[in-house]
Amino acid sequence: EAPHTKPVQAFETQCPFCSVQCKMELIEQEAMGRKTHLVNPIENPASEGRLCVKGMNAHQHALHRDRLLYPMVKVNGKFERISWEKALDLIKEKFTQIQQEDGLDALGVYGGGSLTNEEAYLLGKFARVALKTRHIDYNGRFCMSAAASAANKAFGVDRGLTNQLSEIPFTECIILAGTNVAECQPTLLPYFTRAKENGAYVIAIDPRETATTQLADLHLKIKPGMDAALVNGLLKVILEEGYVDQTFVEERTKGFKELEEHLSSVDLDHIADITGISVQHIREAATRFGRAKTGMVFTARGVEQQTHGYMGVRNFINLLLVTGKMGKAGCGYGAITGQGNGQGGREHGQKADQLPGYRSIENPEHRSYIARVWGIDEQDLPGQGVSAYEMMVKIHRREITGLLVMGSNPLVSNPNANLIEEGLKKLKFLVVIDLFVSETARLADLILPTSSYLEDEGTMTNLEGRVTLRPASRPCPGEVKHDWQILCEIARVLGKGKFFSFGSAEEIFDELRLASRGGVADYYGITYERLKREGGVYWPCPSPDHPGQARLFEHSFAHPDGKAEIMPVNNHFPNEQVNDDFPLYLTTGRVMTHYLTGVQTRRSHSLAARNFESFAEIHPKTAKKYGIEDQTLIRLESRRGSIIVRSKITSEIREDTVFVPMHWADLQNVNLITLDALDPICKMPGFKVCAVKISPLVI
Ligand code: SF4
Q1: What integer pLDDT is reported at residue 648 of this predicted model?
Q2: What sections of the protein cross the membrane (predicted)?
Q3: Does CATH place domain 145-336 in 3.40.228.10?
Q4: Predicted pLDDT at 605
Q5: 187 CA to middle of ligand 1, Å?
Q6: How many angstroms separate the alpha carbon of residue 160 from the centre of ligand 1?
Q7: Where are the beta strands (DSSP E) in 185-264?
């Protein structure tokens, strides 16, 4: 504490920037007439009292002078202040007109994985009950859809980690595939360093050398997009060397015979050729994993954000199942979610194909249960819509003509951003609910100001499936309202107020509990009172006296027959290959100091100062070949557009690959050039691999 500083108040909160959900205390101080802030980490089971640089500075965006404080309407191309009453009337007029002219499904709703569980739940209900549209999806489609679909199919349920984080230090072999925890979830790194200290063998799979791969005993610097094929090589060795857990395979899985048959035609030299990983290294990795008594596999966007991301994750799950490394201490699968509520955001019905409790919108029993909870006629519940990017395509084709965006910046986060911008400009009415005038909000007809993590009470579910309560720390500034209040008020002016008569986040949570009851993500036994008392509770938690389930699948998987599904996976290749015109692979990712499209972190002066612009990592030999100097502006071009960023010459990247982070907009928006082909199963776009060319910027 500085000599003239005196504390004014302190409150407990939770970092909004990743799925670890680290707890902290924010202390407001006064020094020489000015307010300053101090952040202290608070002990909790996931972060163990750690905070990273993003958490330490999260308050800077929440307290930023650019925060929207009242509704704004666009008049003659400029935003003007408008009252809430007039804003709501305008929404009523425009939404009603659009649905009368173009049909109920002409309205779309686009949510986010940073919303609280209550807001994610209410947004799904709002789309289906207040707007009666089938078109709702959210940015989590780009975050977790491949891992979620793969886990659902293989295990019968999707929960990010099947085990607790605290088991990691006691496992013998760890595979980190396409995940850079050191930068993306820094407070998780000590779990892995402790595992190393305890003798674990760590294998990292990544086209780049990162702070995470430095921890590994073996770094497989794979060709982008070739993860599924690499795992076929690992499985081949595991079967050849006799590391299959026959008892586990027989008693707890199905599909092994088909996998065995499929692998008989896999040739290790061919795998080495197409993945860029030597046969020796494939053998080393497979042997280490196969003979370890305990082992865990973690995947993240590097494996998942591909046009065959679902298949890639399925093959990593095959690896765990054939070696019997599931349902035991130190054995399990983890999808390391990126978004602040990436886990909870996908459970409560803001996905096109889902209803709360991870129920299917196509299943008649599930539909009828949710219709009863919502008090509507089952016939009035719309059917399945389309995924996030497919909604953007529908907007471009003028099939969706009105859109409400909450907690997301789709103009920057979708692939092929030129098409997204063209589409959003065609909308008859765009409402954006945000903290700031984001790049998407710039295109809006109406912007509504919402509350930040410091003001918004609600529950969040971390990557382990542990539900916690984030308290509100300060009142909303200006005329700001919470997301849930905004939805309730829009529903009221649309004549649907009786379905949205909530007076608090807790009241919404109580309905969510009921809606999730009996579903795979069952929150029924979790209450605010319990969360305050216990700190956090794992789902599934079907009754108030249930302790919550920390480790899944100890005795049975969630399919009706209790067995997990093993599935043969082909050697998939990226949809877009390099050629003479576009000779390099582009892969994308994150840096430690920024979150998603940077709307919040680019406004934090401490975070922005560390990384204030985008860059392209280029290998020295590649840079020389294309005449590129270090720290100069370059153009990257794909079949869809071009961007301008600064070069960063480093031998940490493969010679055939360029890396650009995803947090910047406008000319630095890497999604102007990324690939918009989708995974056929989960509809994940192929963000992680496309073909580009690079050149020095000539002005
Ligand atoms: Fe914790 Fe993630 Fe926030 Fe960092 S960004 S403080 S790891 S929750």
Answers
A1: 98
A2: none
A3: yes
A4: 93
A5: 6
A6: 16
A7: 201-205, 218-220, 253-254
Phi/psi at 389 (5° precision): -70, -35
pTM of the model as a whole: 0.96
Which ligand 1 atom lies nearest to the CA of residue 18? 2
Cα(205) to centroid(ligand 1), Å: 23
- The identity of residue 388, as a single letter, is A
**Cβ(185) – ligand 1 distance below 6 Å:** yes
Task: Tell me where in the chain the CATH 3.40.50.740 domain(s) lie.
Answer: 72-142+341-502
Q: Which residue has the tokens 């290959």?
A: 577
| pLDDT value, residue 31 | 82
Burial of 247 (0-12, 13-18, 19+ CB in 10 A): exposed
Q: Write the single-letter amino acid at 61.
A: H
Assess if CATH 3.40.50.740 describes domain 72-142+341-502: yes
Closest ligand 1 atom to Cα of 24:
6
pLDDT at 32: 82
CA dist 408 to 59, 413, 610, 679, Å? 19, 8, 24, 21
Contact 403, 416 (CB under 8 A): no
> Residue 316: which residues within 8 A CB-CB, separation 6 or more?
175, 177, 227, 231, 297, 299, 303, 333
pLDDT tens-digit readout, 404-461: 999 999 999 999 999 999 999 999 999 999 999 999 999 999 999 999 999 999 999 9
Architecture of domain 584-696: Beta Barrel (2.40)
Structure tokens at 14: 């939770």
Question: Is the complex ipTM more than 0.95?
Answer: yes
Is residue 403 a contact partner of residue 388, using CB atoms and an 8 Å limit? no
Say how many C-beta atoms besides its own lie within 10 A of residue 377's C-beta.
Answer: 8
Tokens of 276: 């860029």
pLDDT tens readout for residues 59-102:
999 999 999 999 999 999 999 999 999 999 999 999 999 999 99
Which protein residue has the closest C-alpha to ligand 1 atom 2? 18
Would you call 668 helix, strand, or coil by DSSP?
A: helix
**Cα 55 to ligand 1 centre (Å):** 5
pLDDT band at 338 (very low <50, low <70, confident <90, very high): confident
Q: Are 659 and 648 in contact (CB under 8 A)?
A: no
- Ligand 1 binding pocket includes 20 (Cβ within 6 Å): yes
Which of 516, 134, 65 lies closest to 353 in space, CA to CA? 134
Domain with CATH 3.40.228.10 in the chain: 145-336
Task: In the chain, list all ranges with CATH 2.40.40.20.
Answer: 584-696
Q: Which residue has its alpha carbon closest to ligand 1 atom 4? A: 52
Query: Which of 513, 602, 456 lies closest to 112 in space, CA to CA?
Result: 456
What b-and-e string marks burial along 649-664, b requiring 16 or more CB atoms within 10 Å of the CB? bbebbbeebbbbbbbb
Cβ pair 39, 56 in contact under 8 A: yes
Asked if 176 and 298 count as a contact pair (C-beta separation under 8 A), the reply is yes
What is the whole-number distance in angstroms between the Cα of residue 94 and the centre of ligand 1? 40
- The total number of residues shown for the chain amounts to 699
Name the closest-CA residue to atom 1, ligand 1: 22
Q: Which atom of ligand 1 is nearest to the CA of 51?
A: 6
pLDDT tier at 2, thresholds 50, 70, 90: low
Ligand 1 centroid vs 595 CA: distance in angstroms? 10
Averaged pLDDT score across all residues of the chain = 96
Mutational pocket test of ligand 1: of 17, 143, 591, 596, the residue with most ligand atoms within 8 Å of the beta carbon: 17
Specify the DSSP element, H or E, that contains 215. none
Q: Domain 5-62 maps to which CATH number in 1.20.1510.10, 3.30.1330.130, 2.20.25.90, 1.20.1050.10?
A: 2.20.25.90
Start-end of H helices in 103-155: 117-125, 145-155
